[in-house]
């Protein structure tokens, strides 16, 4: 049985290099069933979800990591999110038919923004232009420029799975530069087919069987949307009574559809009045 919906971290015990492997199956299917567009557009989302799972595991935080790519080309917006508990969701917006090619041909002029939204502090954000052959190349540039860390990524997605492999140098280690060059040469022999077909352990053995590799326990990944009726109620309250009443004059219901999971929330006049009254009461209690 093929491993899937798992993240695995690994470490070269005698070298200054660490790594991660991810394979998404059911979680990828759940995430993309709510999105539209050609297969190559959806596969960009799969690559982004595999990437954000691995990137979220490179930092210690409580909250979520968000990868967002925006451009003026055929794909307008791509968002992938992973929490510290490896709950994922994502969306992609663009034309129904998009030609294959480098990122500039897909997104046009654009940028990639990585945000760490921590529950315990100010969000951290890094930005890099959307330039290169694929999403992996952009993220490698991001780490080189923003973190000064040599990083390699391999990201692929198809109709059934989204997969990824990440390697990153550990500069605190002695001889880490030579270690990095050695491991990178070995890793460059990996193929797309191997990433789809092999589980983590046999893949690492195929690539690095001469090295001492410590493989950590698997961590489960699952699709889970963070939307909720209470969160939308807070958003509606922030709009103010006048704006809500204007909307209700035009229609009987305020309808909100979640772009990530397609959940539909409806609020009538009584609901809106209740939201305004309850939130006002909560505010008065706090003061």
Task: Give an overview of the whole structure.
With 287 residues, this protein is α+β, with helices and mostly antiparallel strands. It folds into two domains: 6-223, 3-Layer(bab) Sandwich (Hsp33 domain); 229-286, Alpha-Beta Complex (CBS domain Like). 38% of the residues lie in helices and 30% in strands. It has ten helices and 14 strands. A hairpin with a 5-residue loop joins strand 6 (110-118) and strand 7. Helix 8 (229-239) crosses helix 10 (269-286). The longest helix has 18 residues, at 39-56. Mean pLDDT is 89; it is low at 279-287.
Report the CATH topology name of the largest domain: Hsp33 domain
* Number of structural units classed as domains: 2
CATH class bucket of the largest domain: Alpha Beta
Record field, number of beta strands: 14
Helix content: 25-40%
How many alpha or pi helices? Answer: 10
Largest sheet: 6 strands, antiparallel
Radius of gyration (CA) equals: 22 Å
- Structural class, from helix and strand content? alpha+beta
Share of β-strand residues:
25-35%
The name of the CATH architecture of the largest domain is 3-Layer(bab) Sandwich
Mean pLDDT: 89
CATH superfamily of the largest domain: Hsp33 domain
Report how far apart the termini are.
57 Å
């Amino acid at each position: 049985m093929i491993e899937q919906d798992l993240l695995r971290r690994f470490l070269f015990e005698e070298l200054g290099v660490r790594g991660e492997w991810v394979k998404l199956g059911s979680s990828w299917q759940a995430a993309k069933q709510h999105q539209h567009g050609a297969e190559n557009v959806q596969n960009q989302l799969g690559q982004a979800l595999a990437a954000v799972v691995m990137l979220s595991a490179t930092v210690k935080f409580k909250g979520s990591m968000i990868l967002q790519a925006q451009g003026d080309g055929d794909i307008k917006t791509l968002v992938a999110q992973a929490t510290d508990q490896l709950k994922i969701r994502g969306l992609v917006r663009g034309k129904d038919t998009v030609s294959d090619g480098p990122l500039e041909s897909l997104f046009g002029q654009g940028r990639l923004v990585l945000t760490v939204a921590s529950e315990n502090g100010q969000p951290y954000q890094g930005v890099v232009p959307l330039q290169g052959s694929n999403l992996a190349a952009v993220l490698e540039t991001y780490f080189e420029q923003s973190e000064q860390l040599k990083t390699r990524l391999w990201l692929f997605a198809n109709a059934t799975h989204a997969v990824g492999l990440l390697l990153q140098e550990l500069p605190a280690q002695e001889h880490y530069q030579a270690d990095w060059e050695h491991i990178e040469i070995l890793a460059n022999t990996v193929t797309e087919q191997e990433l789809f077909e092999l589980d983590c352990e046999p893949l690492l053995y195929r690539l690095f069987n001469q090295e001492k590799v410590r493989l950590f326990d698997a961590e489960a990944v699952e699709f889970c949307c963070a939307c909720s009726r209470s969160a939308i109620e807070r958003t509606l309250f922030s709009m103010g009574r006048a704006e809500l009443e204007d909307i209700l004059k035009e229609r009987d219901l305020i309808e909100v559809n979640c772009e990530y999971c397609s959940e539909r929330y409806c609020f009538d006049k009584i609901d809106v009045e209740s939201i305004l009254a309850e939130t006002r009461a909560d505010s008065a209690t706090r003061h």
